[in-house]
Amino acid sequence: MATQSKTRSSASFARWMFLGILTVLLALVAPGFAKAQSRKIDLDDFQKIVNVSSPTISPDGKSIVIIVSRVNWEEDRYDSQLVIVDVATSAQRILTNTRKGLSSPQFSPSGDRLGFLAEAGDEKNAAPQIFVLPMNGGEPQQITSAPMGVEQFAWRPDGSTIAFGSPDEPANKAEIEKHHDLFEVGDNDYLSTSAPTPSHIWLVSASGGTTKRLTSGVWSLATTAEDYPSAPFSWSPDGKKICFTRQTDPHFGDSDQTVVEILDVGSGQISQLTKRTAFESFGLFSPDGSKIAYWFPRDGDFSNSENEVFVTSADGGEGTDLTRTLDRNVQSAFWMPDGKSLLLSADDGTRRAIWIQPLAGAARKLDLGEANATWSPWVDTAVGKDGSLAFTGSTPTRPSELYYLASPDAKTKRLTDFNHEIAALDLSRTETFEWKGPDGFAEDGVVVYPPNFSRDKKYPLVLYIHGGPVFASTTDFDFYMQRWASHGYVVFRPNYRGTDNLGNKFQRAIMNDAGDGPGRDVMAGIAALEKQGFIDESRIGVSGWSYGGYMTSWLIGHYHIWKVAVSGAAINSMAEFYDLADSNVTERFSFGGSPWKKEYAKAYEEQSPITYAGAITTPTLILHDTGDQRVPISSSYAMYHALKDNGATVKFIAIPTAGHEASDPVHQIDIDRVWLEWFDKYLK
Questions:
Q1: What residues have CB less than 8 Å from 294, skipping those under 6 apart?
Q2: Based on the number of CB atoms within 10 Å of its own CB, is 10 exposed (0-12), middle (13-18) or buried (19 or more)?
Q3: pTM over the 0.90 mark
Q4: pLDDT tens for residues 208-221?
Q5: What beta strand segments (E) does 326-475 contain?
Q6: For the residues 60-66, what does the mean pLDDT come to?
Q7: 348 phi and psi, to 5 degrees?
Q8: In which band, very low, low, confident or very high, does the pLDDT at 232 lie, cut at 50, 70 and 90?
């Protein structure tokens, strides 16, 4: 017995020794194991990001429909579905299979149906059409077959019919089909292959059938750029009138020539809301129909001033400037159900914020937690009949999700978790950075730090300068900036004068000062960042796209601190931009007049980066889409030859795709890859 007891005791001791050693080993290994599970972001993670957009709240407030888009790498596209989310439980149900061109989901007034736009027709003639989906089950029914497609639609308040906007067919369609397709040029972009036709309002039964034209003429519903939604029209609550934005002609270059008008649906009579002749847009009836809210630039200045919201009687008149005191560039506006206030959104510092603006009194900013409302391209928000709010948003470490507030005073609640896999990565810290800029401006930007950042080390610095120039850099999730930081860079995204996040004075300061003032702002931000002590001043790169590309070209022509540059879709010649871009002649508001008038020509030349190309010595990568109607690629060809002929190191990569920015995932990743490879080549 003693021997057996001793044997058991020895075995027990051995087991405890083993467990003790194992515990110590696990304690030593665990931190590394956890770190291995939370790896850095890489290029393949792009394909895992889910995009959430276009929330619409059901009339009973119990559910929200969103568009959910995922990368389809094999087909090089984004596949989109309509998904309904239960507010109480966050449960989800897919409503539609993948559809091309999916957009604009809208519940019918009773909530029993859902309308949306999606492409229909064969590949050659595909165009957006209206579909209506019964919410109690069944397949979506296509209710329009507009030859030129549908741009926007709105349910009549009784749910019986739907008003929609659609471009007219060309008057000489038969001749065009016989290849007699010459057309007269107006204020259109240089890539146009036909004359634009006016868009007008039509009416169709919610169950489909014959359509009825409500408006006609050489004028048009307001036109928008390729990546912007149409200015919506709005029904009066009694279903007798439609408020819409009218443009003098359908050329986008004449998009400043807009006024808000009201259509009497029964008689066809149209009346103008105010006596203004330009710059009005986005008219919306109040819930009781007694008022109309609409947009108008601050002080009637179209150059680069804030959008402000006016409220007036539905009988007409200019009304009251409701948001002047807010002093922010409004990016979306909705009436609250009580008709006593509006929901507004705009850039605010390095956040994208939402306010409740009462008809009398100061605006109140809502607490969105860590989330930034998504810009796509207007801020993605919705208001329920019960006063609830929904928006899509992201945080510095999580891509877009659906967020909800039961009321403006409620706590923000995240309803979806599509991007949990990305959020679990070892992502870089993102912070707001502020500095004292030139000319008395207090300025800000965003800094993204590399993983395991230490203030005791020196890091190379890369800049990404935003476009617009109004579109502020904010602390939302940005895959590309996270990727760059994961390569060991401190990433700096400065907001310069012309940005819409710090008030109208700052936004408008870019007027007739396109490069010099913004350039000094950026340089002041770099100097302030260098004072933090962790920047390697011998390794600084600068880059940007669109107006950020312009700023890159400007900065490398005026300052010589750069080790490397990437200039994407840059406006290198302001006169060429005036002549060829989709916005073309509206550029006159930034310079006071046309470059072809002697008194303004010098300003265009002095504010064009190509004028200073001979001073550029920075190794520069030029990127540009071949089908860019916003910024002509000829601008990049000119810069390429100017740098090459003057002996500067330059490489020009063209992206064979349409649009100002690549819209397909393969090209988006290819652009990021060559961009970062160029940085690595010269900064590492």
A1: 260, 273, 280, 281, 282, 283, 284, 309, 310, 312
A2: exposed
A3: yes
A4: 999 999 999 999 99
A5: 332-335, 341-348, 351-358, 364-365, 372-373, 381-383, 389-395, 398-405, 413-414, 430-436, 442-448, 459-465
A6: 98
A7: -145, 100
A8: confident
